[in-house]
């Protein structure tokens, strides 16, 4: 049923990319790391569980985590498989770390991870000296990795992927000589920023990142800002639900992640900023969104890696914008938790959207009146949240199958949505 308005202030949960990295880097650092604002979503809990199996002492109490690391050489052979659940970031970054451990580990995950390509990281890691075996020549789980004796390489990555860049840089941390990665477009730079916070020296020059081997990380304190990828659902909800004003507190504003703000601005959304801190290692600020008249736009090129996870909710915004929206260069969506081009198009069509898939994106004509339907998340958290926001403006009832998937990145999503709609 259509919601009358969304009004109020919320603090979205901690950034998923930063929460994963804080636990991982704390686990291979020397000494104590404390984390505040940790995301308690299932993906980040999978990362904690894997490092506990590698012998790291990690205590998690809600958003506070303490990690006692003993360096990479302090990691111990796991007595069981490392289960990464639904998390691509966990498996790909861990492979980079495990390239430096002289024992064998086996990495597995859920049905979605079983379909996702791993050769994007296993190929360069094998070149660096890691022994990796798995289904489809090391492309699919379960993956067996034995590390040690890593040699630095230069890698020209065919895709703009922070997971690929991070896996190689993490492998290079203990490797011999210099390791560098050049990517075609700049991807999120949380690894580079956080390695510096842990005392390492990382060089970034345009599209190339490099690191010298033999650096020891030192435990530190990490403050995790709110996840802009989670805030995105309420930015779009605030723009498309009538009579709404939503304040989102302490949202991460790292420029490699703010593509959604640029696109919503182009579409005519009324977003204002307060309490911005640009000095923090990860900048953040409060965002205020009001109901807005949106217009169609073209989204392509170097903004794509800066909003890749936000495309499902941007597609919904486009159904409520006057004119045509074209999304290009987003082929990567086909290898996320689901094929997000297919799932977005098929599910939004059920609600009456005028949306067509292209090979590397979609074309959406607006503005359309959405109607309630029986839809499904396909076990993909971002599809589930996008469809829930769609139901807020749809005429009639919507039922969402597999809604529990939202807990992967946003366990408090439905509670916060309810709170904003009741105020
Ligand atoms: O490094 C990260 O934390 C992430 C990188 C992105 O994936 P790719 O590296 O595959 O683009 C993103 O889609 C994912 O949600 C998180
Ligand atoms: C693609 C995502 O995550 P991951 O690759 O870590 O599974 C996501 O959160 O949208």
Automatic annotation (TrEMBL):
InterPro entries: Enolpyruvate_Tfrase_dom, Enolpyruvate_Tfrase_sf, EPSP_synthase, EPSP_synthase_CS, RNA3'P_cycl/enolpyr_Trfase_a/b. It is found in: Cytoplasm. Its main location: cytoplasm. Its EC number is 2.5.1.19. One of its GO terms (cellular component) is cytoplasm. Gene3D superfamilies: Enolpyruvate transferase domain. Keywords: Amino-acid biosynthesis, Aromatic amino acid biosynthesis, Cytoplasm, Transferase. One of its GO terms (molecular function) is 3-phosphoshikimate 1-carboxyvinyltransferase activity. Phosphoenolpyruvate binds at residues 16, 88, 116, 163, 340, 382. Pathway: Metabolic intermediate biosynthesis; chorismate biosynthesis; chorismate from D-erythrose 4-phosphate and phosphoenolpyruvate: step 6/7. Residues 3-417 form the Enolpyruvate transferase domain. It comes from the Bacteria. The active site is at 309 (proton acceptor). It catalyses: 3-phosphoshikimate + phosphoenolpyruvate = 5-O-(1-carboxyvinyl)-3-phosphoshikimate + phosphate. The keyword Ligase does not apply. 3-phosphoshikimate binds at residues 16-17, 21, 161, 163, 309, 336. SUPFAM superfamilies: EPT/RTPC-like. HAMAP family: EPSP_synth. Monomer. NCBIfam families: aroA. Belongs to the EPSP synthase family. Catalyzes the transfer of the enolpyruvyl moiety of phosphoenolpyruvate (PEP) to the 5-hydroxyl of shikimate-3-phosphate (S3P) to produce enolpyruvyl shikimate-3-phosphate and inorganic phosphate. This is 3-phosphoshikimate 1-carboxyvinyltransferase.
